[in-house]
Amino acid sequence: MNRKLAMVLAAGVGLTLVLAGCSAGGSASSDKGSGSGSSKKGGLISIIVNDPSNPYWKTEGDVASAEAKSLGYKSNVSASKGDTNTESNLIDTAITNKSVAIILDPANASGSIGAVKKADAAGIPVILVNAEINQSGLAKAQLVSNNAQGAALGAQQWVKDVGDSGNYAELFGAPSDNNAQTRSNGYKTVLSQYPGLKEVAKQVANWDRTQGHDKMQSILQANPDIKGVIPGNDEMALGAVAALKEAGKLDQVKVGGFDGSPDAVDAIKAGELQYTVLQPVATFAKKAVQEADSFIRTGKTGASQEKQAFDCVLITKENADKVTSPFTLAE
């Protein structure tokens, strides 16, 4: 009798443990945060920038990574170098690593759409920073500088420095990046108001300092009388400054910038660069992670619209000392 009772009690305990195990497994499964509105957060946020050798993109990655960690996530930063094949492979890695979100600076406005679609199909929310893709409703958010506003701001200062007449040249960014054309259009909106200004050269330098230097050399050979250069970013501008110094023409040719990089700010203080247009990359890189966190927890970014533009700030010798950290102007 005692033996039978012991067997019944043992069976009851075993059944209880099995049921408890099933209950615990079911609870863990239903509590996974995957961007579908789970209240649980944590996990890996993958951050893909263009090229961290450029201080702008380095700041973008550093700020996003720091914010992810401050919110309780793991993070890693990788670089596509503007190559869509590399970007696609990095998206595959992010999927394999079960990322809970991806912060992406897209390599190509059209060519990056497929990579974003892959992540979306895997249930991973993608937040775009710095550059857009040519499709709405795919990324959960697209956070960029107000490039048209920034370009107009820079061009107005450029005219003050160069004057309202004379020949000038433009250094154009990467054609695959919509920001390049937006800035160029913004420049034209202002400069076209001055009939005395004539663009005699326009060269693609792909956001790169070395290319900016080399293209500036060739422009000078063909157009030794130019009065100004208006580049699409600081790296190209600093390359142009180097070429003009080598040619002994920096006093005659005025150069503006766009980004607000530490090297550009130093060049302004040294009197070599007239101005730069600071993009608030530190602001929107942080905001992108916050919106990813919100989406992971609630299924919504908290923003009123997908595309969000952040106004740029003009930096000249008068306020260059107020740039207290990379791409951040003190109040």
- Poorly predicted ranges: 1-39
In what range is the share of β-strand residues?
A: 15-25%
Number of DSSP E strands: 14
Query: What is the residue-averaged pLDDT?
Result: 90
Shape, per Cα inertia axes: elongated
User: If you compute it from the alpha carbons, what radius of gyration comes out, rounded to the nearest whole angstrom?
Assistant: 26 Å
Count of helical segments?
10
- Report, as a whole number of angstroms, the end-to-end distance: 85 Å
What structural class results from the helix and strand content? alpha/beta
Describe the strand arrangement of the main beta sheet, using strand numbers: 2-1-3-4-5-11
For the biggest sheet, the summary is: 6 strands, parallel
**Helix content class:** 40-55%
Quaternary form: single chain
- What is the H/E order? HEHEHEHEEHEHEHEHEHEHEEEE
Structure notes:
- The chain is built from 10 helices and 14 strands.
- The chain has helices spanning 2-30, 55-70, 84-96, 113-121, 147-162, 178-191, 209-222, 234-246, 262-269, 281-298; strands at 44-49, 74-79, 101-104, 126-129, 141-145, 166-172, 197-204, 228-231, 254-255, 276-278, 307-310, 313-315, 323-325, 328-329.
- The N and C termini lie far apart (85 Å).
